[in-house]
Amino acid sequence: MKLPPVDTSFVGEWKFEAFEIPGDTIIRVTPRDSIFLILYDNGRVHGTSQGLCWNYFDGFYRVGPNKSLQFESLYETALACIYSLYDHYFDSLHTVYSYDTGDTTLFLFYGTHNSKMNFIRKR
Q1: Which pTM value belongs to this model?
Q2: Residue 116's closest CA among 108, 102, 28, 60?
Q3: pLDDT tens by residue, 13-29
Q4: Are 121 and 106 in contact (CB under 8 A)?
């Protein structure tokens, strides 16, 4: 029995751009607050926050059918990030349930209200 191919379109380095919450609410990252997500093809994830906050995190992800995605065993440095979106971003990763991709975009759907995090591919 042949298994279906695994989608790897999301593997790579991404820059977090915004939270998009139903009801036309968009919360954008300020230019001084850079947050990055790296998804490796072996199931590992790494992220950094630079600028307003200097944290990093590591862990694992699992991909399932129908573009389901789940982050697991995430751990982070715990520096205070008063003016950064990093804390909300890191907390939201724990509730990601699905993803979608475009040529240069990644969308992570999280929470219970179809909210999403928007990323652009870092070159």
Answers
A1: 0.90
A2: 108
A3: 999 999 998 888 999 99
A4: yes
How far is 80 from 55, CA to CA, in rounded Å?
Answer: 9
Identity at 98, one-letter amino acid code: S
The rounded distance, in Å, linking the Cα atoms of 11 and 17 is: 17
Residue 44 tokens read as 């590992």
Centre a 10 Å sphere on the Cβ of residue 112 and count the other Cβ atoms it contains: 7
Q: How far is CA 91 from CA 15, 60, 71, 74, in A?
A: 17, 15, 11, 10
> How far is 27 from 7, CA to CA, in rounded Å?
29
Buried b (16+ CB within 10 A) or exposed e, 50-63: eebbebebebebeb
C-beta neighbour count of 3 within 10 angstroms: 5
**Domains of the chain (ranges, CATH numbers):** 26-121 (2.40.128.270)
- Six-digit token string for 27: 């919360």
Amino acid code (one letter) for 102: G
